[in-house]
Specification:
With about 170 residues, the chain is mainly alpha-helical. The chain contains eight helices and no strands. The chain folds into two domains: about 5-70, Orthogonal Bundle (434 Repressor (Amino-terminal Domain)), CATH 1.10.260; about 85-165.
Length: about 170
């Protein structure tokens, strides 16, 4: 899907007109229209403006995917994923439980370079379980923010501030 189509879809999810979106951007309404139709390319430098103005988690994740060549944790939108709070909470709990079970089976007293092939294979499966859990948890957060009319971007930034305060990540001058 082209970025213009993504912009239009996110704008519609947010209930914004092109004019209302343009008021939040350093572009005019006609530029937004040209971007949406693909008649004008959206520069990568301008992605951040659209991410901030739209404050749409799915749009932001797609830009992360595009910027990193596909290295991102996706929003779970497949046909078997039910997007109601109870079902997503159950999914997140199940994935977290499976990841925890895999983590408990890793012999952490052994250096990684001393692990057998079977142990290394188990670590790889554990990584996949952890990524499944991260995707399920992220999808739950996105849907809860949407249902509660909360800003996903604001919540993520506050969380990052909390991580910095707890010294879990280094301070960033961004």
């Amino acid at each position: 899907m082209a970025i213009g189509t993504d912009i239009a879809a996110a704008r519609q999810r947010k209930g914004l007109t092109q004019h209302e979106l343009a008021e939040k951007l350093p572009f005019c309404r006609s530029s937004v229209a040209l971007h949406e139709t693909g008649r004008r390319e959206v520069n990568k430098e301008d992605w951040k403006y659209y991410c901030q103005a739209l404050d749409d988690a799915v749009f932001t994740l797609k830009r992360q995917r595009d910027a990193t060549g596909g290295v991102y944790i996706p929003y779970l939108d497949g046909p078997i994923v039910e997007h109601n709070p109870a079902a997503l909470t159950f999914l997140a709990r199940r994935e977290l439980k499976q990841a925890k079970e895999h983590l408990n089976e890793i012999d952490v007293s052994k250096p990684v370079d001393m692990m057998s092939g079977a142990e290394t294979s188990h670590v790889e499966r554990t990584i996949n379980e952890l990524l499944d859990a991260a995707a399920a948890a992220q999808t739950l957060v996105i849907d809860l923010c949407s249902r509660l009319d909360m800003s996903f971007s604001k919540e993520v930034k506050q969380w990052q501030g909390s991580l910095m305060a707890r010294q879990m990540i280094a301070r960033r001058n961004v």
